[in-house]
Amino acid sequence: MKMKEVCTRTGLTERAVRYYISKGLCTPDTAEKGERVYYEFTEEHLTQLREIALLRGCDFPVDTLLEMKAAPRHIPQLLRDHRQQILQQADQAQQRLAVLDSLCNAPPISLSDLARQLSREYEVRSLPDPTLTLRFGRLDEELPPEEIPPEQTQRYISRQLALYTHTRRNLLLGGILILLITLLGWFVYQRYSERIYTHLALGCDVTFSQKQQDETGYWAQMTLYPDGFSQPQETISVPVGFDSWPLFQAILTDYPYPGLSLTLSVPKREATKLGIYDPQTAVLDVDGILLSQYELDENWMREHLVVSVVQAELS
Fold this sequence. Notes:
Layout: H1 3-10, H2 14-23, E1 29-33, E2 36-40, H3 43-57, H4 62-70, H5 75-105, H6 111-124, H7 150-193, E3 195-202, E4 205-214, E5 217-225, E6 236-242, H8 245-250, E7 259-267, H9 268-274, E8 277-278, E9 283-284, H10 286-290, H11 298-304, E10 305-311
Parallel strand pairs: 6-10
Antiparallel strand pairs: 1-2, 3-7, 4-5, 5-6, 7-10, 8-9
Helix pairs in contact: 5-6
């Protein structure tokens, strides 16, 4: 039998049933699932709870019920003590009725007047101060912190320690995972983004033509004359880019310059795929690129073959 059915058949709230169980007045079988404790009740437990509810309805304190359960031979004396306590309460109730009767004859005109007259009447009749016996809430449904069973405290501590261990393990695994992802990202970056840089200082005659600017940058058609301008049949003509706007602007078309510096920057993986780089010898075939021995389109050439310095004639 589950908790819900027990509450329905006894008229008790779940909190009251759990309180009686925590005090040891009822001992059903228990099972833990996650952080909650579940109970399995029998008809005998149902009878126990009904008896407890009946006795509590007659104002028997829980501590008295526990003593009756532990030592049945004390029941007669406990009954006499309880009777005497009820007689005292009845006497005090009669005196309070007399206080109210006297107040009804001369009603107070304000809440403060009522409080003062009540205080005076209580002093005259030697009644106990009612503020010393105030009880807020329903005892049977609220488990005070000082009355939490030790086993419940131990279960809570065990759950917190397990949660701490689980969280620490997850943080450690998360840190290791982040480290592995970082290393993998670094490897991929090195594998696919590593570039080959080659700087060329050419001391031959050179001219530029078809100087243009578009969304991809600044470029022109560069013509090299390895043996001077006297043998144009030996020329090499390739498109090149410029590393800066001022250099591009300063270049004059069809004007001979005595030399220049080129920077060839190519991703290693791309260069290997195109066949212009040998990973075994770490050699980039610059001559083959300039002589158009590979099928490299114009956009590729001007993106990777960049003019950084142009020499001018000394006056």
